[in-house]
Amino acid sequence: MNRLRAITLWRPWSWCILYSGKTHENRTWPLPRHLLGEWVALHAGKRYDAVAWQGLLDLNLCIPPTNAECPTGIVGLVWFDRNDLRSDSRWFGGPVGWHVAEALPLQSPIEINGAQGLWFVPDDARAEIARQIGFEV
């Protein structure tokens, strides 16, 4: 059985992927090929990007929750299907955009510390994710 990877994002970006149709997670590096077409846990970090929140409002991309309203921890799963170097999506900022094919929010966030880069989800958190979504990941 493969181990589930996770990515930590500053809030409200994790919320934007799950609830506002954010189509790309912008990075300087491509998602490794072996993770394309696999579920990745979406972790909302403790840091809240207030500048991004204002930018989302100014650009009329969405109305994200405030810091107090935005949960932390593992908040969902995301399925990235490709790395884009160019896109017409208003969510693409490059230089590499991990394209979001599907996003599944969890019923309840799983409080856990995140990490930089891609990291492995502990087995107990993975079991809780599976319980909430109804299938093994």
Write up this protein:
- The chain is 20% helix and 37% strand.
- It has 137 residues and is α+β, with helices and mostly antiparallel strands.
- It has 3 helices and 6 strands; from the N terminus they run βαββαβββα.
- The protein has one domain.
- The chain has a 6-stranded mixed beta sheet with strand order 2-5-4-3-1-6.
- It starts with a strand and ends with a helix.
- The chain is globular.
Number of individual domains: 1
Tell me the number of strands: 6
- Helix-strand pattern, N to C? EHEEHEEEH
Q: Structural class, please?
A: alpha+beta
Number of helices: 3
Low-confidence sequence ranges: none
Q: If strands are numbered along the chain, what order do they take across the biggest sheet?
A: 2-5-4-3-1-6
Instruction: Kindly provide the radius of gyration, computed on alpha-carbon positions and rounded to a whole number of angstroms.
Output: 14 Å
Largest sheet: 6 strands, mixed
Fraction in helix: 10-25%
Shape: globular
Give the terminus-to-terminus CA distance. 9 Å
Percentage of β-strand residues: 35-45%
Mean pLDDT score, rounded? 93
